[in-house]
Design goal:
It is built from 5 helices and 12 strands. 38% of the residues are buried. It binds cytidine-5'-triphosphate. The site of cytidine-5'-triphosphate (CTP) has 15 residues, from α3 and β9.
Length: 209
């Protein structure tokens, strides 16, 4: 049995106390991965952005909003985890300035939102992976496999699960799971719960657990 860290959902990057930048991730895939791991008897630490899903029974849930909060929660959890599934759709950028008060209508005209890069959570954690397994996702609209393999090498992933933009928010989709060892598995089309079980089988299963 392993203790596994899973990131899920979108991140929310504030502009002012009431407005934010985010994306369409529902968190379904990450929560399904957490459930699939729990069903195989693993302990799961789920670091989740804001979603409207019920947490799986038995999970250790850490709810966060921004990418920086997600990184802080993950760093702490990663110390005693054996594997990571980075399923979250982390915003790559956040507004450089967050207004302390709600921006007024007249303050918007002619203004630009200046962005600054967010940390890459999976890349940061993978730097200290040692022999631990790290699985990432790649959402690609073009040149899928080549781009996913590039991400796998750049981020030091053991596996990358490739899907298309139609997967965001959907109940069902397909995944191509590429391994650093050259392996390749096609999963689906299927419900995300079945895809998640397949993903856990071809990744953690490859380590004999
Ligand atoms: N990821 C992360 N932290 C980020 C961005 C991405 O941990 N700031 C993780 C995702 O959880 C996923 C993987 O990195 O497992 C790939 O995410 P993706 O958005 O496809 O890749 P990017 O690095 O953002 O590349 P690009 O936007 O250029 O396609």
């Amino acid at each position: 049995m392993a203790r596994v860290l899973v990131t899920a959902g979108p991140t929310l990057e504030p502009l002012d106390p009431v407005r934010f930048l985010s994306n369409r991730s529902s968190g379904r895939m990450g929560y399904a991965v957490a459930r699939a791991l729990l069903a195989r008897g693993h302990e799961v630490v789920l670091v989740s952005g804001p979603v409207s899903l019920r947490p799986p029974a038995g999970v250790e849930l850490h709810s966060v909003e921004s990418a920086r909060q997600m990184l802080a929660a993950c760093r702490a959890a990663w110390q005693d985890c054996d594997a990571l599934y980075a399923v979250a759709a982390v915003a790559d950028y956040r507004p450089k300035r967050v207004a302390r008060n709600k921006l007024k209508r007249h303050e918007g005209e002619g203004q630009f939102i200046e962005l600054t890069p967010n940390p890459d959570i999976v890349r940061t954690l993978a730097r200290t992976k040692g022999t631990r397994m790290v699985v990432g996702f790649a959402l690609e609209s073009q040149r899928g496999e080549a781009e996913a393999r590039r991400k796998m090498m750049a981020k030091k992933l053991d596996f990358v699960a490739l899907n298309g933009p139609e997967a965001q928010g959907a109940q069902a989709s397909s995944l191509t799971v590429l391994g650093r060892d050259g392996s390749r598995s096609e999963l689906g089309p299927a419900q995300k719960s079945a895809l998640a079980r397949g993903l856990v089988r071809v990744t953690l299963g490859s380590r004999g657990s």
